[in-house]
Amino acid sequence: MSDFILFDEEFHQLKDVIGRLKADAQAKVVFIVDKNGQQIAAMGDMESLDTTSLASLTAGNVAATDGLARLIGEKEFPVLFHEGERDNVYISIVGQRVILVVIFDERSSLGLVRLRVRKANGELERIFDTIQKKVESEKTRRQEGYDSPFAEITDEDIDSLFRE
Amino acid sequence: MTFINYAAREINCKIVYYGPGLCGKTTNLQYIYDRTNPAAKGKLISLATETDRTLFFDFLPLDLGTVRGFKTRFHLYTVPGQVFYDASRKLILKGVDGVVFVADSQEARMDANVESLMNLEKNLVDHGFDLQAIPYVLQLNKRDLPTAVTAEELYRQLNFKGEPTFEATAPTGQGVFDTLKAIAKQVLMELRKK
């Protein structure tokens, strides 16, 4: 399985898209997580949020729901919605690979969020297609002898991580 | 599947602690959490039953420091060990970079160890991984118990590819960081090859 590599250019494109989505959907926070639980990009008021835990739990949630879907003969449930007293979470799958999460309160509505997410989904899919192509070409370059920045990692580098 | 973020200069890796029920996977994470500098760790999340048995997973994010200008972030997960949680256990292996197998040293748990190891192999195959090839460390836990069989016997029964093996007593921390260090090292070494 190939690694997921995120370059500056696409990172900024992703941030632009989710920044716009946050404004258009009048959401509090928008973030993108990969299906393995790693946060890719986030926009909004994150100070009060533990985004690392959110990313991991979101991925767990989606994985469990995917499992449920398959058990009843569905491919996946592309949208999950959790309604709270104050805040709501709208989760959707982009291109079967990454998860888009929108947290919103009474200043927005489910209808508005759904509409804006649908629009952003297409843009995000295009960016992730580009990322996929870049990852593939990076892999080829490495097979052709181009050194990755990690080719030079030494035992000493790793031991130094564990020194008190 | 390592996530390399050039924009944030971060490497994110996923390590899963696997093993039979009550072998001490959560205790490993708890000890690491307790002994790690607050600046280098996130919250320890446990999705557990009312009786503190792992229901879905435990999760601990750790920042180990910088290698070649990249922050190394490890996400440690445990799986639920009980046999009937296999569907959940399988989900957690998605995108794994390295596995720690925590074996229970007690004689009465030998069959459970072997069954769990076979289950690991099968679940990895379902995700497209090969236990022979993936970064892998064996931990022989509960060495302090009087019912523990000898480390040599456990090694003979459970070590199958000469993987690094550590004796441990997770509640006191013996062997816990040695295990973590060994798996982190293998995962980072794997990056060199890619």
Q: How much is the radius of gyration of chain B in Å?
A: 16 Å
Name the poorly predicted regions of chain A: none
**Class from secondary-structure proportions of chain B:** alpha/beta
Large-scale geometry of chain B: globular
Which architecture of chain B per CATH? 3-Layer(aba) Sandwich
**Can you count the helices of chain A?**
4
Largest sheet of chain A: 5 strands, antiparallel
Given the C-alpha coordinates, what overall shape of chain A results?
A: globular
Q: Largest sheet of chain B, if any?
A: 8 strands, mixed
Highest CATH level, the class of chain B? Alpha Beta
Class per helix and strand makeup of chain A: alpha+beta
Q: How many structural domains in the coordinates of chain B?
A: 1
Helix content of chain B: 25-40%
Give the number of DSSP strands of chain A.
6
Broad CATH class of chain A = Alpha Beta
CATH topology of chain B: Rossmann fold
H and E string of chain B:
EEHEEEHEHEHEH
Q: Low-confidence stretches of chain B at least 5 residues in length (pLDDT < 50)?
A: none
Q: What is the percentage of strand-forming residues of chain B? A: 25-35%
Separation of the first and last Cα atoms of chain A: 34 Å
